[in-house]
Design a protein that fits this description.
- 53% of the residues lie in helices and 2% in strands.
- With 208 residues, the protein is mostly helical.
């Protein structure tokens, strides 16, 4: 697929030592949440607060300072979390380039929601901004988007992934997910034989 032109990369680090100010500027440049930024650096909240004790001071750990320089120069190493619309547009771009691609539904947020293991209602909540995907789904979306971007044949990958989704749904008791347009219930029965919630949050409960 053709890549969109990227804007020039403006470095925040310079000739002097990397400081806490550079750390903050780089987080803003990457437009990434602090917790995800720390995770990407292999750092933790204690490191974050230590840096903020004096933002003008050099970063104490030279390895961390070098990692910040590396990410500053190659920001593509830290990709921004893909949105539902990003995935819709990516799949549409693949379909334009590979018109022979066969998908079980029109390319909409509903399709992407089902492909990510969620109900169509949940994906509509993502799309309208009323809620956001959980981290585990964001990580799945990230890997999905990366493979669409980097594989030589993204259409073949999409067809393969659709079959993976079908197989998982069938194994859970729904032989035709894209006709039912709903994942099978993941709620567990309680002692009274009634459905009990088995989700970690509102989004996951929606899958029950």
């Amino acid at each position: 697929m053709r890549k969109k032109p990227t804007p020039p990369n403006v470095l925040v680090t310079g000739d002097g030592p990397v400081t806490g100010e550079h750390y903050d500027q780089l987080q803003k440049k990457l437009d990434i949440e602090m917790v995800r930024f720390l995770a990407r650096l292999g750092a933790n909240v204690r490191d974050h607060y230590a840096i903020h004790e004096d933002l003008r001071a050099p970063i104490a750990d030279p390895g961390l300072a070098l990692h910040l320089r590396l990410i500053d120069r190659y920001p593509e190493l830290v990709r921004k979390d893909p949105t539902l619309d990003d995935l819709v547009q990516q799949i549409k771009a693949v379909k334009r380039e590979y018109p022979q691609l066969r998908l079980p539904m029109r390319i909409t947020p509903s399709l992407v929601g089902l492909l990510m293991g969620r109900h169509m209602r949940t994906s509509s909540l993502w799309y309208t901004g009323r809620t956001e995907p959980s981290w585990k789904i964001v990580e799945l979306m990230r890997d999905f988007a990366t493979l669409l971007d980097t594989l030589d044949d993204p259409a073949a990958f999409l067809e393969e992934f659709v079959e993976m989704v079908r197989a998982e749904a069938a194994a859970r008791g729904e032989p035709d997910l894209f006709a039912a347009r709903r994942w099978p219930s993941t709620r567990k029965k309680n002692a009274a034989g009634e459905d009990g919630e088995n989700g970690e949050n509102g989004e996951d409960d929606e899958n029950g």
